[in-house]
Structure formats: C-alpha cells, structure tokens
C-alpha cells in the first residue's frame, strides 16, 4: 500500500509507479486501487489478469464515472503488461487525466481490457465511493 502523507500536490501516477518499483518481483500482478472505492459485491474477483488488464471498477459498475474510456478506480495489471507500458506517466499533478492517458497507451499496445462479468448489482450497489473533495482540497488542484 502506497499513500501520500504530506500536504504537497498530489501525483497519483507517481505513487502507483513507486508502488510497482517497491513491490516484489515475485508478485505477478499489481492492483491499482483507489482507497476511497470500496467493493460491496463479493462476486468481484481480484484474480490474476491472464488475458490483459482487468478493470474491476468498469464504467458500467462505478458509482460516479460512466464514460466509456474510464480506467480508474480499480485496475489489475500483470507486471509484464505494466512494464510493457513503461508504467504510468508522472506528468499529471492534481486530480485526474493520468488514467485517461494510461487507457490510451493500453489501446495503442493492443491490450484487451477485461471487465467483470455477471455482476448484477449495477452502478448503485457494486461499490461505495467515500471520497470527499472538501477534506482533501489539494486533490482538486490541477497542474499539467
């Protein structure tokens, strides 16, 4: 688990890249998981993403983001695929866009992005999103 503890500007991709670098090479995949997105459905599986990146919080299930290219929230990706993409871009400071850019690079690499199947709880019952923009003002400031 990697978390930013200071009050400086937020850079989510940098934190994810550090987490990847610090993880053991014996780990065959990583979970890029927002701490404020809590799974509520026990049928969501955090299994090895054998076919390609697995977007657990897909737009059909996320309580807030429904645009078709959304890739944030919870993404499982193999070490091999993460290395092929050279990680996430560190150029996005503040909240947003790092996932959108990562999605574009996955598509350019012809990676198939898997989504959960058979989940019937929909956008209202699959996750609980507990983010408060009032509590973490620095997260809303964009600088890219």
Description:
This protein is an alpha+beta fold. The protein is built from 4 helices and 5 strands; from the N terminus they run H-E-E-E-E-H-H-H-E. The chain has a 3-stranded antiparallel sheet. Strands 2-5 form a two-stranded antiparallel sheet. The mean pLDDT is 91.
Distance between the termini: 25 Å
| Rg, Cα atoms, Å | 15 Å
Which bin fits the share of residues in helices?
10-25%
- Helical region count? 4
Supply the helix-strand structural class: alpha+beta
Mean pLDDT over all positions: 91
Give the helices and strands as they follow along the chain: HEEEEHHHE
Quantity of strands, as a count: 5
Give the strand content: 5-15%
What kind of sheet is the major sheet?
3 strands, antiparallel
Identify low-pLDDT runs: none
How would you briefly describe this protein structure?
Helices cover 22% and strands 12% of the residues. With 144 residues, it is an alpha+beta fold.
Q: Which tags fit this structure?
A:
144 residues; 4 helices; alpha+beta; 12% strand; two-stranded antiparallel sheet; 3-stranded antiparallel beta sheet; 22% helix
Which helices and strands appear, and what pairs or packs with what?
Layout lengths: L11 H11 L6 E5 L3 E3 L14 E2 L18 E5 H6 L13 H11 L13 H4 L1 E3 L15
Antiparallel strand pairs: 1-4, 2-5, 3-4
């Amino acid at each position: 688990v990697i978390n930013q503890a200071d009050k400086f500007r937020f850079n989510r991709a940098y934190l994810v890249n550090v987490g990847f670098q610090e993880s053991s090479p014996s780990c065959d995949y990583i979970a890029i998981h927002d701490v404020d997105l809590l799974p509520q459905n026990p049928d969501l599986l955090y299994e090895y993403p054998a076919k390609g990146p697995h977007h657990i919080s897909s737009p059909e299930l996320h309580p807030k983001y429904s645009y078709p290219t959304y890739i944030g929230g919870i993404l499982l990706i193999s070490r091999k695929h993460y290395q092929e993409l050279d990680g996430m871009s560190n150029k996005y400071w503040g909240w947003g866009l790092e996932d959108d850019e990562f999605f574009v690079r996955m598509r350019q690499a012809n990676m198939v992005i898997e989504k959960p199947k058979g989940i019937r709880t929909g956008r209202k019952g699959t996750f609980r999103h507990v983010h408060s923009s009032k509590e973490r003002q620095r997260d809303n400031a964009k600088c890219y």
